[in-house]
Amino acid sequence: MENKPYGSVIGSASAPYENALAKACGLATDYRAITHPSLPNYLAATGGSTFGVTDDAGPSAHEIAASSIFQQLAVAKLSWRAYDESMPTTCDANSSGRYAVKHNPAVYYTAIRQECALSDVPLEGELSRDITAGTLPSFAFITPNLCDDTHDCAVRTGDTWLESWIPRIVAGPNYLSGNTLIVLTWDEGVGASNLIPTIVIGPSVPAGTRSTTPLNHYSLLLTTEQLLGLAPLAAAIGATSMRASFHL
After folding, report:
1. Number of structural domains, the chain?
2. 140 lies in some domain
3. Burial 73-93 (b: 16+ CB within 10 A, else e)
4. Mean pLDDT value across residues 103-132
5. What global pTM score does this model have?
6. pLDDT on residue 124
7. Which residues contact 107 (CB under 8 A, 6 or more apart)?
8. Residue 141 neighbours by CB under 8 Å, 6+ apart
9. How far apart are CA 194 and CA 4, in angstroms?
10. 109 and 71 Cβ atoms separated by less than 8 Å
11. Given its phi and psi angles, is residue 86 left (phi above 0), alpha (psi -120 to 50 degrees) or beta?
12. How far apart are CA 121 and CA 17, in angstroms?
C-alpha cells in the first residue's frame, strides 16, 4: 500500500477492515520505511539497499545490476510472481493509467529480465486463478494500482480493496495448508519518522499480537529470506527479524 502514516490507518474509522485484521492477527507498532520517495523503499524491501536511488524514475534511469530476492528465488529453483494491478502487459517497464512502474520493483533488476517476462504479471485474472488453484508461488509481491493502494484515492478505497482480496487468500488452499504468510505493509509514511502500518497474517500468529520492536523494510526482507531458506542480502544482514515477534 502507499504513502500513509500509521495513524491514518490504525485507529481510523476509514479503515474498518484493516483495523479488524490488526486485532485478529499481528500488528507492528514501530515499523518504519527506509526513506522517501516510493521507489527506494521498494528496492530496499526486495534488494536490501536503496542502491543510491533518490527518485521515482523508471527502469531506464535505474538499471539495478545487484542481486534481489527475485534472483535468489530463481537460483534456488523456487517460484515467484509479482501481481501488478492495472499493468497493461507482462513486466511492463512504463507507467500508464493507474499502473505505476515505480511500485513494481522486479522490473528494475537487470539480472532477472528473463524471469520478469514470465513471472511479473498483471494482477487481473492471474491472482484469482492462482489463489483458487492453490498454485501461489513461494514468494508473491502484490501491488494494487494507484487508486486501490490509496496513493491517489482515499484510505477507505484501499480498505475495501483489501477486504476483497485478503479473505480470498486466507480461504484458499495455500493458506489453509498452514504454510502461507501475508504481510500487509506500506511503502512510506510522512516526514522524518516514516512510521507506517504493518499487519502480519499467518496461521502461527497469535490473535492480537503487538510488536513494539523497531522494524523496517530490511526486517521484512530478512524475515522472508529466513522463511524461504535464503541468505540475507545487503542491509538485511544486520536487520532485526520479525520471526520472534510474530511467532513465525
Report:
1. 1
2. yes
3. bbeeeeebbbbbbbbeeebbe
4. 98
5. 0.98
6. 98
7. 59, 91, 92, 93, 101, 116, 120
8. 46, 80, 81, 82, 83, 105, 106
9. 9
10. yes
11. left
12. 27
Q: Give buried/exposed letters for 148-179 (b at 16+ CB in 10 A, else e).
A: bbbbebebebbbebbbebbeebbebebbeeee
Percent of residues, the chain, with pLDDT higher than 90:
100
Residue 213, all three cell numbers:
520492536
Cell 513494481 identifies what position? Answer: 104
Is 1 part of a structural domain of the chain? no
The answer as to whether 178 is a domain residue is yes
Q: What is the per-residue pLDDT for 17? A: 98
Q: What is the pLDDT of residue 152?
A: 98
CB neighbours of residue 206 within 10 Å: 9
Among residues 49, 88, 14, 7, the alpha carbon closest in space to that of 222 is found at 49
Give the structural domain span for 46: 6-246
Query: Three cell numbers at 206?
Result: 497469535
CATH of the domain at 115: 3.40.720.10
Peptide bond into 37 cis (omega under 30): yes
In this structure, what are the phi and psi dihedrals at residue 99, rounded to the nearest 5 degrees? -95, 125
CB-based contacts of 183, cutoff 8 Å, min separation 6: 198, 199, 200, 201, 220, 223, 224
The pLDDT score that the predictor gives to residue 238 is: 97
**pLDDT at residue 47, as a whole number:** 98
94: CB partners within 8 A, 6+ apart: 58, 101
The answer as to whether 128 is a domain residue is yes
**Using one digit for the tens of pLDDT, what is the confidence trace for 161-191?**
999 999 999 999 999 999 999 999 999 999 9
